[in-house]
């Protein structure tokens, strides 16, 4: 049973799949204090949060069993993703579950701001009838500057077009082609500042975007601009905004998010042209169900080893990509295990080559699988797909990927080369239709080896009687040979034998084999992943 802890208010209806699943127990501790969370987190395999719980490094370090932190929403700024990555914990979110709600909230804020709705409501509900005081402005024919034309920015665009606004978009990823498809003008930040009557922000909060609306930007804005922020608090320098509002350069601001939530910079609320909501962008019944459904499915996928769609600290995989890549992931791990055992020590350089059909695939997850397979040999179960690249870097190692378009011979091919102080190991492998994964190259030798649990790798002189002697020693010691591959480069030169065995051999047998005249090296190779004694059914093509 996997124990999942929910520490923020997350939709019960959206979590139904988790409740109903036989492998999960879901516990709720909403509002748990940080020190209490730290004390209990070690008991849980998964944690679900919205944005109230701060999942700090301290808490992550205390989380001995945790495999996943799921954010029921978009922004993961309340989670120390780096600390989670170092610990090998997957962080997932729901990137699209609240897009429409946040979009509609942005439009609601823009309309409320332009027509003074909250202020007029307050006045009217106090018995006043101040029609002149709350005269507003239309959106019709006004220019809207959208900073960040991702999911929410795009949806806001569509709705602003319905109001017949002219839309300017600024986003490093906005191309002319996409802008014209959306019916908007691609602009620079300065153009947005100079031309917009309304500016709305839809970027994540990062080093580059923190205080993007600052004194310098505000000084360039058209007088009377109205600013809407339903994205992240730190995007706007609240002190600079306060000053621009007081000076009258900015005619109004609608804010759903703040630099230090739940605090609001003193002075802002005293201004008559500032309207606020307490981070309500995603607070609709529909969005809350959607985000909870999304993270429940992701958690089930993670524990059932299915494709994960929305991991923050792992490559994304679609279900289709996962299905095509699954056999390669297994083969990649086996190649890595063989490679590192053959090298016998930690590599100083790693090279991975992809060819054939693999050139058409997203191989990021395969690369991580191979790196994980290599590192696990020395670092054990602390390595997983989340932290493999981080741990590699920590070891001061790099890897190099080659994509070989001129490779011929197999319809798909991957090769791992490991290097250490003049020593090199090369393992080539392919998925052969109808036969599954095969090792097809071992150092300089062409081979055809089905990866199995117990392998024996023998280097010897190419002299008569060697195969017989090896067979006899194994037979005398009750060790059945499954398959045997032999190879040599030249008559009388160095040759290899690779045997698959039904069980591993003892040190005594190894010593007997090593004692044979002409024997150069005998090495046991063990695969811990996905070995099979069953031939896959033949698939006609
Ligand atoms: N108020 C809420 O409750 C609420 C709800 C949902 C999302 N959000 C926030 O809204 C924001 C947008 O969410 P989304 O789902 O549209 O994200 P998204 O990832 O789909 O889009 C973000 C866009 O910002 C762009 N961007 C990044 N750096 C930029 C820069 N320096 N200048 C201009 N554009 C830049 C990216 O290229 C991307 O296109 C996020 O901060 C998210 O956390 C808030
Ligand atoms: O209400 C929430 O959970 C916050 C939503 C929003 O800020 C997000 O990033 O998804």
Task: Write a concise synopsis of the structure shown.
The chain has 17 helices and 22 strands. It is an alpha/beta fold and 541 residues long.
Structural write-up:
Pathway: Amino-acid biosynthesis; L-serine biosynthesis; L-serine from 3-phospho-D-glycerate: step 1/3. Its EC number is 1.1.1.95. Catalyzes the reversible oxidation of 3-phospho-D-glycerate to 3-phosphonooxypyruvate, the first step of the phosphorylated L-serine biosynthesis pathway. Also catalyzes the reversible oxidation of 2-hydroxyglutarate to 2-oxoglutarate. This is D-3-phosphoglycerate dehydrogenase. It is an enzyme of class 1 (oxidoreductase). The structure is a single chain. This protein is of the alpha/beta class. It has four domains: 2-93 and 285-305, Rossmann fold, CATH 3.40.50; 99-276, Rossmann fold, CATH 3.40.50.720; 316-451, D-3-phosphoglycerate dehydrogenase, domain 3 (60s Ribosomal Protein L30, Chain: A, 2-Layer Sandwich); 452-527, 2-Layer Sandwich (Alpha-Beta Plaits). Helices cover 33% and strands 24% of the residues. The protein is built from 17 helices and 22 strands. The protein has helices at 16-20, 34-40, 57-61, 81-86, 99-115, 117-125, 151-162, 176-182, 189-195, 215-219, 238-247, 285-303, 319-343, 364-379, 388-394, 466-476, 507-514; strands at residues 2-6, 24-28, 46-49, 68-71, 90-93, 143-147, 166-170, 185-186, 198-201, 225-229, 250-255, 274-276, 349-356, 399-404, 412-420, 423-432, 436-442, 445-449, 454-461, 481-488, 494-501, 519-526. The strands form four sheets. It has a seven-stranded parallel sheet, sandwiched between helices. Strands 14-13-15-16-17-18 form a six-stranded mixed sheet, with helices on one face. The protein has a five-stranded parallel sheet with strand order 2-1-3-4-5. α7 links the parallel β6 and β7. α5 crosses α7 (151-162), α13 (319-343) packs parallel to α14 (364-379) and α14 crosses α15. The longest helix is centred in the middle third of the chain and has 25 residues, at 319-343. It is elongated and about 110 Å long. The chain starts with a strand and ends in a 15-residue tail after the last strand. 39% of the residues are buried. Mean pLDDT is 94; it is low at 531-541. Residues 74-75, 98-99, 102, 147-153, 170-173, 202-205, 208-209, 230-232, 256-257, 279, 281-282 line the site of nicotinamide-adenine-dinucleotide. (2R)-2-hydroxypentanedioic acid is lined by residues 50-51, 73-75, 98, 281-283.
